[in-house]
Design brief:
About 70% of the residues lie in helices and about 0% in strands. It has about 300 residues and is an all-alpha fold. Helix 4 packs antiparallel against helix 6, helix 4 runs parallel beside helix 7 and helix 9 packs antiparallel against helix 10 (about 215-240). The longest helix is centred in the first third of the chain and has 33 residues, at about 50-80. About 35% of the residues are buried.
């Protein structure tokens, strides 16, 4: 083998996980923790039966979302090879063959749906809607401006709905609005970052051609405003009759760090670093501090209400 070929092999990244696991995108699995939102907000996650059912719903969503990633990578393998990071994905790089990817796809779809319908018909139905909508996205609707944002946003919203459906927990309109507009804020911010860092003509996402940075800014600013307003209304309504610990309305107090956390993420979006938000935010001390304060206030409010 030529020295240049050996050097090229040595330059390739080495992974701890096999290609069959990496194609399921384990780094994206935390998104499925959104399934916990409804049980946590209702203060019922710590009930043994509810906690067990919610865990099954999370696992089911990990499986079906992994199936969606496989379908997306199969459809995008040619375009991904033009992207500096996406070209390293298992299918685009050739680390996982198309045949193996299809076999794995059938396995995770079957496992996710069987688990979902075993848990409850409602959860199974939510998983089917998720799979159909995200498959439609992968097979062509992702190239349609606005529609692509709506479908990606719906994936997050369906996760939040799944947590309530799996445990029979009623979902308030404010909770759904927070989940919906919060998801749209993240998705629009991601598109904005892709636009300003890669450009609409990079070939990595055709829908970017239908956007401008100004238009995407309008979307994520509008979404940020609506999610803060919806969260505030949800906090006031859900905890209206709570006996406040130490006389402090902790749910209302949580609005402040929540809002500052949104602003911190908006700063990440504006800088063009929201293409990989989980990485950018994990190194943002302001966001981490605001997140910790929000979590503390929310937990106190939930525990106080439950007692």
């Amino acid at each position: 083998m030529a020295e240049a070929d050996v050097a090229g092999l040595d330059a390739r990244p080495r992974y701890l996980l096999p290609a069959g696991v990496r194609v399921l995108r384990p780094r994206q699995w935390p998104k499925n923790l959104l399934v916990l939102a409804a049980p946590v907000a209702a203060g019922r996650l710590w009930e043994p039966s509810v906690g067990w059912r919610t865990l099954l719903a999370v696992v089911a969503f990990v499986l079906v979302s992994g199936a969606v990633y496989i379908v997306n990578d199969l459809c995008d393998r040619e375009a991904d090879r033009c992207h500096p990071q996406k070209s390293l994905r298992p299918i685009a790089s050739g680390a996982l063959s198309v045949t193996s990817a299809l076999a794995l796809l059938a396995l995770v779809v079957a496992g996710g749906l069987l688990l979902g319908f075993w848990r409850s018909t409602g959860l199974g139905a939510v998983l089917v809607v998720y799979l159909v909508s995200q498959a439609a996205y992968s097979f062509g609707l992702k190239h349609w401006p606005i529609i692509d944002l709506a479908l990606v946003t719906s994936g997050f919203l369906l996760r939040a709905i799944a947590g309530g459906v799996a445990d029979g927990i009623p979902l308030s309109q404010w909770f759904l609005l927070v989940a919906g507009f919060g998801s749209l804020f993240i998705v629009a911010g991601k598109r904005y970052s892709e636009m300003v860092t890669l450009g609409a003509d990079s070939g990595t996402r055709r829908s970017l051609v239908g956007y401008t940075p100004g238009f995407l800014t309008v979307i994520w600013v509008m979404s940020a405003t609506l999610v803060v307003a919806s969260y505030s209304l949800w906090a006031f309504e859900a905890f209206a009759h709570t006996n406040h610990w130490a006389g402090v309305p902790w749910a209302a107090v949580s609005i402040a760090p929540f809002t500052l956390g949104i602003l911190s993420y908006a700063r990440v979006v504006e800088s063009g670093r929201a293409g990989a938000p989980e990485e950018a935010l994990s190194h943002d001390p302001v966001f981490l501090v605001m997140g910790a304060l929000w979590l503390a206030c929310t937990v106190v409010a939930i525990v106080t209400r439950a007692s």
